[in-house]
Structures are given as structure tokens and as C-alpha cells.
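Friendly challenge for the regulars: who can give me the C-alpha cells for this chain first? No prize, just bragging rights.
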Amino acid sequence: MAAYLNRTISLVTGQTGPNNNDDKNSTATDTVDDSRHNLSLQTSASSTSANFNPMMSDNRMYQTNDKSPLQIFVRAKKKINDIYGEIEEYVLETTTFINALHADAEIVDKAERELFESYVFKVAAIREVLQRDHMKVAFFGRTSNGKSSVINAMLREKILPSGIGHTTNCFCQVEGSDGGEAYLMKEGSDEKLNVVNIKQLANALCQEKLCESSLVRIFWPRERCSLLRDDVVFVDSPGVDVSANLDDWIDNHCLNADVFVLVLNAESTMTRAEKQFFHTVSQKLSKPNIFILNNRWDASANEPEFQESVKSQHTERCIDFLTKELKVSNEKEAAERVFFVSARETLQARIEESKGNPPHLGAIAEGFQIRYFEFQDFERKFEECISQSAVKTKFQQHSSRGKSVSGDMRSMLDNIYERITIFRNLKQDQKNLLTERIQGTETQMMQVTREMKMKIHNMVEEVEEKVSKALNEEIWRLGVLIDEFNMPFHPERLVLNIYKKELNAHVESGLGSNLRARLSMALAMNVESAQNEMTDRMHALVPNEQLVTNSSKMVVRTQPFEMLYSLNCQNLCADFQEDLEFKFSWGIAAMIQRFTGKVRERSKKQTPALINRQSSIGHTVVTPVSTPVETTPVCLLPTPGVVGGITPEQLSIISRFAMSSIGSQGTVGGLVVAGVVLLYRYQLNTEHLQMLKTIGWRVLVGIGALYGCIYLYERLSWTNSAKERTFKGQYVRHATKKLKMIVDLTSANCSHQVQQELSSTFARLCRTVDTATTDMNEELKTLESQLNVLEANQKQLKLLRNKANYIQNELDIFEHNYIAPQ
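First reply, four minutes later:
Bragging rights claimed.
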């Protein structure tokens, strides 16, 4: 009783510290007891009215909301919701990022992507639970113990039906609503019913009855009750002695309760049914928070002499029940959770107070003030307990799950970051290797190009030299080739044209065949060797995989290289004019032509010839059409006014020719000429006659006869065969002259063919290398792009890991501020 008085006095006076003087406690106790025995109910009420301070009667009524212990839960709920909002954004951002990475199976596989996506649903479910999370208190007890009255008193308004008998036939849950109107909803229905119908729904006397385990949710405006405003939900239950389905009650309505209030009837003792129910609760919940209210304590005012003994008996039994039977608290905690109140009296006092009247107008019996403060003490302890319990039970698990989600995701992001780092290093190595390969290919390409150009140049010069030498040798042997031509010859003009055409074709074919036989095989082998060397050198610059790819795109020559010798004898010898008229070889005209030819040859040797090869290659040599040589001997042409048919100029030449013939041990022709000269001089000069006489006429006649025999022999032997030999000789001289003019052109043409063949091969190989280099550059760009993406992914992963650490820190701070101090 002393402890009870100390607690009550401390509430009235505002002193929270314990009294050190036991005598004073005893005196105060005696004074209170005497006043209860000596004063009547009216006197007690008036005395209470005179000494009661309305401002102190209900500090909680005028207490600001920020100072209420329930605000801890409100702030904690807001904070954990804010944190989970950040977690949800973080999970969505991370999942979006992971889905983008899933395209590359080397980094993120399908299982990891699905695991990240599962966190989205988990966090969304937690957020939904957090939105519904509130502080829940469940009231249990036997029928008509005043459970509904206690709730009405705490809510300061008569909301739940109460009265004599079995009034609550189902579970009634009272929770706050943001609107200004009150309504209720039946279980399994979204229909909002007027709250005045609660008496028809919950009253056991009504014809429409509900199942005792069904739930009726009553939504009461938050602005009308501070407890509802602070997210406290009240659950009223039927009596525990009504149904045996206690397990269903607990499973459906009690597992998420933060505080249980056992409402007993102070006029009787705790029953077996009430104990059995809470035994079942303690088996399914770990150390539930249980408050015990001994209601209707106002009845003890009728028997004040037994009040203390009954109170001590009830208190002892309640403490034993909590500590020894349920083992949910120690004796000190249990003593703080047993209260003796009058719910109906408190409700009446608060209704009067809401009307502006003093609270004592609602008193039922003597000792109202003590019972009233006892109820307030219960509310204060209840608020502290439910706030601590709800924060811990509701938010500690969510905080742990938030840490688990962020920690698991951070661990997975660390693994992905490591894989990206390995993958990035691999790509970086590939980039470095590819860069070195491209640079090396370009350097080697320049070197190979210089070497191949030099090789092609040397080979072209070598081919030009060989072709020129071979063609000159074949021209020197042209007579043999023409002698091999055996087509029938006839001097007829039409037949002769056909003969010349066929001879031109024979010469061109024979020269081409001879040149191919001498040069083509060696040239083809040299060209093939050079091509193989080019191919090997260039293929060494191309990666094997690209070489295989590009080889299918390359157009490769299927036939070996073959030199083409374009002589074109038809056009070259088209200006050839044969001279098939008979010409005496020892005739005067023939001798003069022979002598003038030697003179011209000597003059040519004295004058050096400057031949420009490039000019001869770039320009077509135009050979003037030679005038046919006069076929009639000079001695047979009559010339008027000329002595003996010889002009003075011819005589001068004849004299010089004769002197040269004598000095060189001339032949018969020389003698004949000498004789003619002497005869001519004899006719002109008597001295010549003297010389002729010296020689004698017989010699002259013999010489003339010999000369005539020779002439006759040659004239008779001038047959078609002789004409063919003469024709071929003339053709050989003409063709030799013409072919020598195109030696440089032909050799340059052949060298150009070799150069073109090698250059085309080298260009084709260069295109292959260029294609490979282009492919490598494209691959390098791809690698650079991939590296940029990987670097961006690494930065994003770092950011996401930092966000995970931030969330972990936020949850640590939350636990430190709201859970750890509890």
C-alpha cells in the first residue's frame, strides 16, 4: 500500500523520486485510510473537488504530442519508411543496371538477374507491411470484465458497446482514419458502414450474430483521439470463456500484437480460462508484454476494511502468474504492470472533462482520485511499453531485413565488380596487344613495300634486258627462220601479196615461239617466286583468323603468268616493197650502188648515233616508204649528150672505184672497170691510145667475152627460185631493220607486263593487309567502346556499393536511436 501511495502522490505532486522516510510514508498511508473510513461518498467527492487541480487531473489530455512516448514509434516508423523508400529506389536502380548487364552473360548470368529482381518484390512487400504497421494492443478477459469499457476510457469516448452481460460477440478493432467521419468494415467486405451500427454488429443480444473469431474494423477520426493519432490500434475480444478456439484467436489476431491487457474483475479472482489463454499466448510468442488491470476496483470502497488485503492478494497472484507461471518478466517488472482501476468511472470523468466540468463529477465511489491516477499511471506505463515493444518488434526485423538485402546486394555487386575488373583487364590486354599489332603491321608494311618495290624494279630491268638480248639474237637468226618458210613462190602480184602475208605471220609466230621457248618458263618461274615471296611476307602481317576470312574474298589468278610478245609483223612490214627485176651483179649500176653503200656505212661509223630508248618506247617509229630501186642497169639506159653513156659524175666515181680496186688486188670486175676507164681515156687522149696499144686488143676482147658469159649465166639462172631467194633476202634485210627498231619497245612491253603482274599481285595483297588493318582498327574501336562501357559499369557499381553502405549506416543509426536504447 505504501508503494502504491508513493506512486500516486508522485503523480499528483510531480515528484518522481522515492521517499526516504518510511515514517512519513506510513503517516500518509494512515491519513488516507482515515479519510476513506470517516467521510461519506458525497463528502469525499466534495473534498476531492475542493482539493483537485483540473490542470493536473489529466496531464496527458493537455500534453503536447511530441512529448508522448508514442511519438518514438511515430518517428521510428517515419524514419524506417524513409529508409525503405531509399532501399526501394536503390533496389530498382540496381536491378535496372543488372538487367542491362545481363546482355553480357560473362558478367551477370540469369540466376543473378532473377535474384536481384526478387529483391524488388521483397522490398515492395516490406514497404507495404510498414505502411500497415502500427502499435497494436489486444484486450482479453472473461465476459463482462469491462474490456470494452477500458478501451472506451482510453479513447475518451464511448465507441465500443458495453453493459451488463455478454456484449462483445466478435473481435472489434479500433484504428485511426485520416478522414473526419467514423465508419466500420466487416471482415471480407470493403463496404463502409455507419459506426452507429456497431451495436447491431457486435452486441450479442442482436439477432444478426457474427462468428466470435470474425473481425469488425472500426475507423475513428485520428483528430479525436491522441492514441489513434499516434498509430495505436485497439483490439477488443469476446470473453475467453466463450469459445474453446483459442488457437484460432491467437493465430488470427494476436501474433502481431505488441501489448496484451488482461482485464480481470476485481470482485473475483483470476480464472483457469484466463490463465490458459495466456499460457497459449506465451507458447506462441516469446515473452509477450502483458498488463493486468483489476477493473471495477471502485467496488472495494464499500468494504474499506478488506480493501488492502484483497488488493495484496490480487497483486500477489498476478505477480506470481507473470513471473512463475508465464515467466515473461521479473518481480519488479511484474509489480509495475498490475493496476487497480475503474474503467467506467474513468470514462465518465473524462466525458465530464470533455464537457468542461471537473472530472470528479464522474466519480462512482470514494477514492476516485486514487483510482483515476492509477488509470493514468497505467496509460503512461502502457504507452512506454507499447512504444518500446512496437519499435522493437515491428522495426527491428525490418531493419535487419533491410541490412540483409543491402548486404547481400553489396556482396553480389562486389562479385560482379571483380568479374568486371577481370573482364576489363582482359579487354585492356587485348587492346594493348591489338594496338601493338596494328603499329607493327604498319611499320612492317612500309618496310615490305619498299623492299617489294625495289624487287619489282630490279626484276623489270632484268626482264627488259633478257627480252632485248633474246630478241636481238632472234633477229640475227631471222634468215634461218625465213628459210624455213616453204610456201610456193610465184612473182605474180596477187600471189605475191598472199605470200608476204603468210610470211609475216610465219615470222611473227616463229619469233614469238622462239622467245617463249627461251624466256617464258624462266620468267614465269621468277614471277611466281616473287609472288610467293610477296604472299608470304604480306600474309605474315595478317592474323590467321582474318587471313582465312579475307582469303575467300580475294580474287586469285587461276592460271600461271604467261608473257605476251606483241611483234605485229603484219603492220611492221606492211611497207616492204620487193624488187624482183633482173640485175646483173657486175653491172655498172650495181657496182656503183655497192660502192656507195660502203661509203655510207663508213660515214655512219664516223657519226655517233644517239638513241633514246624512252623516246623509241613512247612514240611509234614511222618508217618512210622506200622508193623501189631502179632495176634497169645504168649502162643500158641511153643518155643523150653523154659520151659512151656515162656522165662525168659517174666517171669520177668509176675512177675512184678503180683505184681502190687496184690497190686492194681487185677482181675481174675491177679489171673490166679499169679497161673501160682506159678505153675512155684513150678516146679522149692520145696517151690513152698509146696505153691501149700496149695492153692489146686481145685482152680487151677476152675480158668482154668473160663479162658477157657471166651476164648470160646470171640471166639464165634468174628463175622463180632465184627470185624467191632474192625476195627472202630483201625481206630479211627489211624485217631486220624494222624489228631492230622495236626491240626496245618489245622489251619495255614485256617488262611492263611483268611489272603489271607483280604490281597487281602486290596491290591485291596490300588490299588484304589494309582490310585486315581496317578490321583490326574496327576491333580496336569495339574494344575501346567496351572498355568505356566497363569503366562506366565499374563507376556505377562503386556508386551502388556506396549507396549500399549508406543504407547500412542509415539502418545502424536507426537501430542506435530507436532500438538499441530500448
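Residues 368-476 form the longest helix (109 residues). DSSP finds 28 helices and nine strands in the chain. Your move, everyone else.
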